[in-house]
Amino acid sequence: MNTRIHLALGAGVLALILSLGAAHAAGVDPSGGLTGPWLIGAGTQEDQIVSALKDANYAKAVAARTFDLTVIRAHFADDASVPLTSRQIAELARMAPGTSPSGVLTYELAYFGAWRVGAEAFQRVQTARRAGKLPDPRDVLAAIPPRADPIRDLPLTVHLVRVSGDRAYVEAETEAQYFRVTLALHGTQWVIVGENNTSKLGS
Amino acid sequence: MRYHIHERVVVLTVVLVVVSGVLVWSRPANAIGNYNRSAAVAYADQWALSRNSNYPQFGNDCTNFASQVLQAGGYPQTNPGSYFTCDPSLWYQPFFVNMWWYTYSWINADCMRQFFSNRPQDFELYGGSPEYLQGGGDILQIADGGGLTPMHARILTGPGYGSDGYYYNNREDQHTNDEYELTWNYALDPSWALYPWLVNW
Predict the structure, then answer these.
(1) More confident residue, A180 or B162
(2) Which residues of A touch B131 (CB under 8 A)?
(3) CATH number of the domain encompassing residue A149
(4) CA dihedral for A39, A41, A44, A49, sign (positive or negative)
(5) Residue B28 confidence class, pLDDT cut points 50, 70, 90
(6) Of A52, A136, A195, B130, which has fewest CB within 10 angstroms of its CB?
(7) How many domains, in total, are found in chain B?
(8) Distance between CA A54 and CA A147 in Å, rounded?
(9) Which residues in A have their CB inside 8 Å of a CB on B?
(10) Which of B131, B146, B148 has the CB atom closest to A149's CB atom?
(11) Number of domains chain A is built from
């Protein structure tokens, strides 16, 4: 009797293992796709798109430390069909008054351009302090230190990649924020033409 | 003999009063070292995951919490002036007529930044990596809203061990998404602007 029960249990477990294995081999998520990252398609093109997003984020991290705008121009582009969000338009007006909200490249250039001006003010503040003087209040108010910490790789969890011709839409997240990004294929390279990111910090 | 003792006591008292008066008088109003960092950190750690009913409370409570920590460290509120404004010369929050009154510098990250900027003798932006900031009670403001304006604030509580057991140069407490002893760079995007404020008061 016991032997039969054991055999039945063993067969059941074996069947479960085999079915999970078959599902895995077939690319089927046994959880029904309710949890975890997933892609629509999982081919080379999707990999290129995700890589483009990662590279663009890394370029921004580099620019936050060097203000090298060439890396930004290499990964972002304005696109008339992808307007800035209302929040980006408001921030653009604050960072670069009078600038036409042409797209995400314009926005990123304004962001790092204004930050560079703030970093220059910060340098003047530092110089004054080293000289034992109180800095100019206008410089103190304008000062924004460049990022000085090492660039930390925040793993990107991709939830969705949707491709339509030379356009792609990605939803993803890191520990810090949620990304909703539109990309366009320029020649052989995917570049970011729209982004609507949300911090996880609250305020 | 008894007269001499009284005379000595009087002279000694006069000397003590004069000396202490000179010391107090000669100390700059904003001399470095007044900030009680231990008290600031103790407050931050005590209230990181809850709310103190002696202060106003907000859904977005990060800057309000940073203000409370500053006050716990002894940083004095300014004299009252206008309320509910972003005047960079004001920072206070009294309770009277059955309600909280406050300046926006008490509760709003960018108004707090403007207040700090208006007091360069008391607050200094740090230029190195915040990883090396170790002054408990210092404040890290974070521009996580897409622009360069700080939107969030955390309290640096000093070096120690993170929840993962590893040693980190800095831990932080914060309100809004209430957190206790985060590692300093947890959930910080590498391209956001940071405003690490040293309290030099």
Answers:
(1) A180
(2) 149
(3) 3.10.450
(4) negative
(5) very low
(6) A136
(7) 1
(8) 19
(9) 57, 60-61, 63-64, 87-88, 91, 94-95, 111, 114-115, 118, 122, 125-126, 129, 134-135, 137, 140-141, 143-145, 147-152, 154, 174-177, 197, 199-203
(10) B131
(11) 1
Beta carbons of A77 and A105 less than 8 angstroms apart: yes
Give which of B167, B156, B143, B157 is closest to B197, Cα–Cα.
Answer: B156
In a domain, A90, yes or no: yes
Question: Does the model's ipTM exceed the 0.90 cut?
Answer: no
Quote the pTM value.
Answer: 0.80
Residue A94 lies in a domain: yes
What digits encode the pLDDT tens for the residues B114-124? 999 999 999 99
**pLDDT tens column, A133-184:** 988 989 999 999 999 999 988 999 999 999 999 999 999 999 999 999 999 9
Q: Give the distance from residue A47's alpha carbon to the nearest chain B alpha carbon, in angstroms.
A: 22
Closest CA to A83 of A199, A197, A195: A195
| Phi, psi (deg, nearest 5) at residue B95 | -115, 115
Range of the domain at A59: 38-199
Q: How far apart are CA A89 and CA B184, in angstroms?
A: 31
Q: What integer pLDDT is reported at residue B182 of this predicted model?
A: 86
Residue B102: domain span: 2-199
Q: Is residue A14 part of a domain?
A: no
Q: Which residues of B touch A199 (CB under 8 A)?
A: 144-145, 151-152, 189
Partners of residue A179 on adjacent β-strands: A172
Chain A residues touching B88 at Cβ < 8 A: 141
> Rounded to the nearest 5°, which phi and psi values hold at B125?
-70, 135
- In a domain? residue A6: no
Q: Average the pLDDT over each of A103-112, A170-179, B35-44, B131-140 and give the range with the smallest value.
A: B131-140
